[in-house]
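Dear support,

I submitted the protein below through the web form. The confirmation email said the job was done, but the results page showed an empty box. After a refresh the structure appeared. I'm attaching both so you can tell me whether what I see now is the final result or a partial one.
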Amino acid sequence: MERYFSTEMPGVLFLRNVLLFSLAGLIPVLALYVFLSPGFASALVAGGANLSRFLRQVVTNGIPVVVVVNYVGFFLFALSNSQPGSNRDSAVFIVIDIFARIGVFVSLHALIYVLSTDWFGSFGGSRATALSVVAPTLARSALFENISGVYLYATLISAVPLYVSSIRRSPTLRPIAEVFPYSAGHAAMAIIIFGLLAGILTALAAAVMSIQN
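What the results page shows now:
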């Protein structure tokens, strides 16, 4: 992955790679979501309003969210690999990523929902309504119950490389990862950390929902 994401490469090339990897991470998860949703695939094949709304949702919400979140993850990955001799525990990059990833994911959903009221008349044209549905939507995303879950798990493609590389160099996390058999420990722990991130997102969304109610 270092060949695709480095602090030494031109910004345009870095952004191009982020976009390509984001699409590679989004398309399979999106296809899985459509396959698992009863009647959804047939509704899309029929075309019409269902297909146009679906494509609009993916283009205006999904791709921007996935690309920006992945940009943050891949930038942190490149930054962490540019400091191999640092005395700092590389686990700090994981902590930064978790907070940044959640913050960007939530903020972009809120912003796009509000903009959608002006552009497409979504949510009855009410910005307050748009903001009020952000928390309930994100609370179910970790369980893959809505399309926001697709966008969340599409960002795994940037989280796993960062987490694995950070775990390997971390004096704190590496011994824990070595508990797992064979060489699967780093990847398994990276998935567990991402699951923790999804849990934090769900808890935060649930807390906001309780305040709203």
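Response: this is the final, complete result; the empty box was a page-load delay. Residues 11-212 form one domain.
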